Amino acid sequence: MTISFDFDTPVERRCTESIKWDRYKGRDVLPLWVADMDFKSPPAVIDALVRRVEHGVFGYTCPPEGLIEEVVSLLERAHSWKVDPLWIVWLPGLVTGINVACRAVGEEGDAVMTTVPAYPPFLSAPVLSGRRLITVPLAVEGGRYVFNFEGIGKAETERTRMFLLCNPQNPTGRVFTRGELERLAAVCLEREVVICSDEIHCGLVLDEDARHISIAALDEEIARHTITLLAPSKTYNLPGLGCSFAVVPDPGLRSRFTKVMNGIVPHVNALGFTAALAAYRDSEDWRLALIDYLKENRDLVEEFVSQTPGMSMHHVEATYLAWIDCRELGVKDSAALFEDFGVGLSDGCDFGSPGFVRLNFGCPRSTLKEALQRMERAVTRQLG
Length: 384
Fold this sequence. Notes:
384 residues, Aspartate Aminotransferase, domain 2, 7-stranded mixed sheet, 16% strand
């Protein structure tokens, strides 16, 4: 029996304490900025949460029976990565994991490298940890973003201790190939650089010919030098419930990671664990339906950008995020331009790339179409 899910009906999120929507409270602005979707979470997740809430007691909690088994099974089934349950460290959020990783590797004054454009916490976590941030711009080859290995080699220093990787990449939507990951891993291993790999969007690969590969799954030596960060929050639209985890195969590295957490990082809450189990165990049909819907939204955005003067973008292979180059519009702040016309986008400056905007197309198609119409009016006004 085929089950249908409704992604078309808008859900009213105003006055629900939504960071995404309340940013423009009292204004006619469609928020397509921060990376949470405007869809209801999977029915199985909602049902599980209702049952848990009806229990009425919300004490300190541990992972529910079956959750660790589901995570281990998923990683082996979907990513050909056999994980020991002892490698898993639970976290109340993936950004927490990025900050913990930066503190767990090396010491103050050491360097952390990443590529730009980058998820904003990649740019802030090293600095907050007393590390020096090194950024290397991604290159563009064959119409897609790729690692600039020459730039990485030139920028690396004797005190570089960690490389922050995002795969699938936020904000560009790239899914890096096995060859690209093997080459990056070889560079890091040669210099004893630990890789912290944010793979939170791995369940949102849109292209049938693209496949997510966990860099730690390449071989055991790479795994021993890797901290992999994962969560159900992006795929199943659960960011407000705070349940993530790190996979750290090396015992020494895992010990340093958990030591940094002690006394600072809180436990995952009961509802976060409940939602994670229902998402991974019972919501695959919803995820597949979501992928189909997001593909059509992505195609709509790519078609719009290709036909709009002053804007360009490369194909989005994964995520629900479009990274749009607006430098040809000739405006200093393109995000402000679109906001003036009623569309709230993420400013590329926050990702280390001025002149770009990031658009979240994880919303009902009617909302997206209205946003694109408003953006078209903004471009027409700007270009005269």
